[in-house]
Amino acid sequence: MGARRLPRPARRRSRQGPVTRAATENARGVVVGRRPARVRLLWFGIAVAVVALLAFASVVIGSRDVSIADVVAAIGGSVDNTSEAAVAKRLPRTVLALVVGLALGLAGAVMQGVTRNPLADPGILGVNMGASLAIVVGIAWFGLSTATGYLWVATVGAGVAAVFVYAIGSLGRGGATPLKLALAGAATSAALASFVTAISLPRGDISGTVRSWLIGGVGGAGWTSIGQMAPFLAVGVLVSLLSARRLNSLALGDELATGLGERVAVTRAVAALGAVLLCGAATAIAGPIAFVGLVVPHACRLLVGVDHRWLLPFSGVVGAGLVVASDVLGRIVARPGEVDVGIITAILGAPVFIAIVRRRKVSSL
């Protein structure tokens, strides 16, 4: 005789037990992903090394190539010739590219974790354009002119846009699905971009500056603006990294996260605050650079898995490398001129966005 079959309720309980235990371990950070720690550390070390090489290339490559001796002399404070002067200008530009890329890569990973939306990105969800509109309104109507003012106004604009898009995407049946959030973000970005054009176009005194800033770039960086950005960046990075374990809980779903003692609304609000600070600071200094926050987290998940304790710092490092690489590439392809970073990242990121949208299994994280 064959083995007696268990009654249906007993079989259902036997299947649910291991799943629940695995989910609990996932939420507590015990078992998230299957990549060994040494593999993750290896990839992280490789990423840091590649970013360091890209930063060095950013300093030496441009309309005028410079030598290592010129780099060392410029770092030491000696600016005696044209090459050393070029290095002195490229150093803050390289640092700005690093911190902007770190901010956008980290913010993209946090947004995808908060919304459980694989299409979440500061540009796609309208956050960058919200910050842009706030700055343009401040310049045109309130005489905004300081970098510190840009930072505060951009942060407020980014926060308002994020809340608006999430509220619109949550309407109707099913709540905030990835498709609804992406559509709400795209529509909001288009509307905000129209407002930016309507405000700046009649103002000949600011229209040229606004148009060039909206492309997104790191040229003309200075140590003063980077220093003013640093407190916003530091707070945003700290809040985002401290939210990593709770984002692992959110990945299980709201009901299970609540059952494990997680305050879902508070977790989302705090993590989103970190992302908004990062996006606002990056946009205020460099303009709205798109697709970095979308492409980087997807690439990082392939290397280090879905554990946000690894994914968030890895996304920051890889984001920094992507922006620096885009800046270097923009100098090479149009020598002796240059192509702004925002154009390069759009060319690289648009095909990735299309590929993600076309995947049938992309419904949530």
From TrEMBL:
CDD domains found in the cross-reference section: TM_ABC_iron-siderophores_like
InterPro entries, per database record: ABC_BtuC-like (IPR037294), ABC_transptr_permease_BtuC (IPR000522)
Subcellular location: Cell membrane
UniProt-annotated stretches for the region Disordered: 1-20
Membrane topology of the entry: Multi-pass membrane protein
A GO MF term: transmembrane transporter activity
Family: Belongs to the binding-protein-dependent transport system permease family. FecCD subfamily.
Record protein name field: Iron ABC transporter permease
Species whose genome carries this gene: Labedella phragmitis
